[in-house]
Amino acid sequence: MEYCIPKKIHIIGSVGSGKTTLARQMSKKLNIPYYELDNVVWKRQKGYKDIRRSEQERACYLDTLIRSDTWIIEGVHNEEWVDNSFQNAELIIFLDTSYSVRTYRIIKRYFLQKLKLEKSNYKPTLKIFFKMFKWNKYFEKVGKPTFFKKFKDYNDKILVVNDLNEVKDYFNEHRSKNIGIAK
Prior knowledge:
The chain is of the alpha/beta class. The chain has one domain: 3-Layer(aba) Sandwich (Rossmann fold), CATH 3.40.50. It is built from seven helices and seven strands. Helix 5 (about 100-115) runs antiparallel to helix 6. Residues about 180-183 have low confidence and may be disordered.
């Protein structure tokens, strides 16, 4: 059986799990465009004056992305409006990064953004900083169990990983099997 590299990939995980980093890396390596779900929710404006898309605009925009031949979509969202992305994905990567690592990354990100060493789509305020801890906790207690309950029928295309190296191992393992090379 020949292994084909997936061309439609959905990456989900909590704040600070590594979704955007992984999406960027995979996009570059696989030559597939990546999209952040936050940018589907928000029309980005200069000066952090973002405008929330209506439900209809958001659905239409996401549908346009999903209908393209190749994509990597990443985000924390697993609400009904994102269901078609999971359904159409050839591979769903669930980043199950440890809670403490995510907490550390939230803190690190905040300071890097405040020092203008890391770009952000939002103004890095203390209010947003504290919300990230709240969102991280919510994802752990509600988002994660909801995802696995809701999308259990997709188990054959879900890859659960604890760190980004496991994704590399997955692709290397499948590539090796395809060309008959032992790991």
